[in-house]
Amino acid sequence: MIIRIEDIEIEVERKLIRSMRLSVYPPDARVHLSMPFFLREEDARLFLHKKWAWICRNREQVLQRPRKPQKEYISGECHCLFGTRYILHIEPVTVGVNSVGIHEDMIIMHCRPYATVENRKKQLQEWYRTHLQAMLAELVNKWCARLGEAPVEWRIRQMKTEWGSCTACKRHLVFNLELARVPVDCIEYVVVHELTHLAVQNHGPAFKALMTQRLPNWKLLRKQLNEFLIAQ
Question: Whole-prediction pTM value?
Answer without folding.
Answer: 0.78
